[in-house]
Each structure stands twice: as structure tokens, then as C-alpha cells.
Design a protein that fits this description.
Helices cover about 50% and strands about 0% of the residues. Helix 3 (about 45-55) packs parallel to helix 5 (about 95-110), helix 4 runs antiparallel to helix 5 (about 95-110) and helix 8 runs antiparallel to helix 9. It is globular, with a radius of gyration of 19 Å. It has one domain (about 1-270). The chain has 10 helices and 2 strands, in the order H-H-H-H-H-H-H-E-E-H-H-H. A two-stranded antiparallel ribbon has the order 1-2. It is mainly alpha-helical. About 45% of the residues are buried. Keywords: Membrane, Transmembrane, Transmembrane helix.
Length: about 300
């Protein structure tokens, strides 16, 4: 799914004029590939970091673990201030760093055995609900607007920081869609840390998955609220932007929610279920078996779209 979104981003930003997109200035193939590079930075570097954490102990070849650490360091450079600038989403040379980390992580996790997730009916129901809510963003990702009706899409509205009237749902990428995919990804690997050794690394992996889940929920709600609730004039209150970590109330809520999620069961009761997961493992490594081939479940003021 994530790979499909990267392709959509490249195609959409290559064929749609920059004026109809969000905070980009380049067009054609260069514009499409550049925006896809930025998408690899955010949000995909977050996903790559999570997958590296849950697969690290299954990397049995000696050269893979040092490479995984290098990949993780490259991925976390996405947190450097200004690495992804919502006000200018054109690609820059520095954007290669997190993208390189994502590429290495993809190579390592694709070729390594790890505990997958058995998607349950509850998981499929949740995925369906998220897909329905994300329909305007999915259409925008492909470069089209849904017909007017249930959702606000091409309706012109006033937006803070924007000149004149703009569509409620601009064409191109939205952080609401990326947040929905972060939710699905975090849930898809939710039970996996139980198969890891009882170490600090296991607890950090569980905490990071919980943080991504809480982050995804808050940012998806924030984007949906702004475009489908506030833009209709139903309320003057808007949810503050939460795409970038800051010392704000909304980020306090994310951290509290992540702490609460951290203590949720990491097994079947988590909603997706798991197979082949055991709490017993050796310090020299773990024998892990995939139960699925791969998880297929997708930024800094106002309604960000990085």
C-alpha cells in the first residue's frame, strides 16, 4: 500500500499544475519525483523505523544489523527541523538522507523473516471505516476531486495562511491519508514485539508503535475535522496542527494517548491478532515465521499536507 501511494504521488504531482497542488512549485517529471522523494521522508521514514525495530532481531547475518542501525539513523534525520518544510514541499538535496534510510530498511525487512499479523474481522472492519473516511484524500492523491455530496471536496473556502479561496480538499497528498495508513501499519505489527527478547529494545519498539498509533489517530482527526467540519461552518473551533512535535496541548494529548495505548494487550485482543508469536526467545536470535507475505494496510501549521 505504501509503495502504491508513492507511485500515485509521483504521477499526480507530475501531471497536475503546481498551482492546483499544495506548496510545490515544480511541475512535470522533476516535480513528481521530487514530491515522491519528500514523501519517502515523511511519513515513510517513520514506518521504516518501526519495521526496522520489529525485524532487528531476525537479522541473522552479521552485516545486516550494522546496516539496520545506519538505516535507522538515516530515517530519524526526518526529525531534524526543516528536513520537511510544509511551506515548501519541493525536494532538496538533504531529503535524500531519510529516503536512503527508507530504501535500506526496505531491502532489509523484505529479505528477513519476521512475525506478521493475522488480520481479523475486527481489523478488516476498522480498515474499511478508515478507507471510507479517507475517500476524499484517496481521490485527491490520484489527482481528482470527489463529486460534491457527502464530503466537502472542491468547495471553495477560506483557509488560514492561504490567499483567497481554496478548495476544501486540495489535489495531491494529505497528511490525513498518511495518518490513516500509519494507524493500519501500527496495528498490523502490534503483536510482533511479543516475539522479541524481553529487553529495553522490546519496550522501546512497543512504545514507538503506540506513539505512531496515537499520532496517526490525532492527525487524521485533525485533518478530517478541518476539512469536513470546520470548513462547513458548523464550528469556529479547529484542532491545532499536530504534525510536528511541539510543547503544546495537542502533543500532550498524543503522548498521554500513546502511554495509554502502550499498556493495551499486544495479542489477539488488540484487534488484528497475531500468529506464530511466542514470548520465549533466545539471546542469540529468534526463529520467526511470517503469517502474511507483507502488511498491506498510506506536515507544519493549520491543515498540513506533507
Amino acid at each position: 500500500m505504501w509503495a502504491g501511494v508513492v507511485v500515485l504521488v509521483a504521477v499526480t504531482y507530475a501531471r497536475i499544475p503546481p498551482a492546483e497542488l499544495y506548496h510545490v512549485s515544480r511541475s512535470g517529471l522533476a516535480g513528481g519525483l521530487g514530491r515522491a522523494l519528500v514523501y519517502l521522508d515523511f511519513p515513510m521514514a517513520l514506518v521504516a523505523a518501526l519495521l526496522l525495530a520489529v525485524t532487528y532481531h531476525s537479522l541473522t547475518w552479521r552485516w545486516k544489523r550494522p546496516l539496520a542501525i545506519i538505516s535507522l539513523i538515516l530515517c530519524v534525520t526526518v526529525a531534524i527541523p526543516g528536513m520537511v518544510d510544509e511551506d515548501n514541499l519541493d525536494a532538496r538535496l538533504i531529503n535524500v538522507l531519510p529516503a536512503l534510510g527508507v530504501g535500506i530498511a526496505l531491502m532489509l525487512t523484505w529479505s528477513s523473516p519476521w512475525v506478521g499479523a493475522r488480520v481479523t474481522r475486527a481489523g478488516l472492519a476498522l480498515a474499511t471505516c478508515l478507507a471510507v473516511v479517507s475517500l476524499p484524500w484517496i481521490a485527491a492523491e490520484t489527482g481528482f476531486s470527489l463529486p460534491r455530496g457527502l464530503f466537502m471536496t472542491s468547495d471553495l473556502v477560506h483557509e488560514p495562511g492561504e490567499i483567497g479561496l481554496v478548495p476544501a480538499v486540495h489535489l495531491g497528498d494529505h497528511h490525513g491519508l498518511g495518518s490513516a495508513l500509519l494507524i493500519l501499519t501500527a496495528l498490523a505489527v502490534w503483536a510482533t514485539p511479543r516475539g522479541l527478547p524481553r529487553t529495553v529494545g522490546r519496550r522501546v519498539t512497543q512504545a514507538f508503535a503506540a506513539l505512531l498509533l496515537a499520532y496517526g489517530v490525532v492527525n487524521m482527526v485533525q485533518d478530517f475535522w478541518g476539512e469536513q467540519i470546520a470548513d462547513r461552518g458548523w464550528t469556529d473551533w479547529s484542532i491545532p496542527d499536530a504534525s510536528v512535535p511541539e510543547a503544546t496541548l495537542i502533543w500532550g494529548i498524543i503522548l498521554i494517548a500513546a502511554a495509554a495505548v502502550y499498556w493495551l494487550p499486544h495479542g489477539d485482543s488488540a484487534g488484528w491478532g497475531a500468529s506464530g508469536v511466542s514470548d520465549q526467545s533466545s539471546s542469540s536470535g529468534i526463529s520467526l515465521t511470517k503469517s502474511i507475505s507483507r502488511s498491506t494496510a498510506p506536515t507544519s501549521s493549520g491543515r498540513s499536507s506533507a
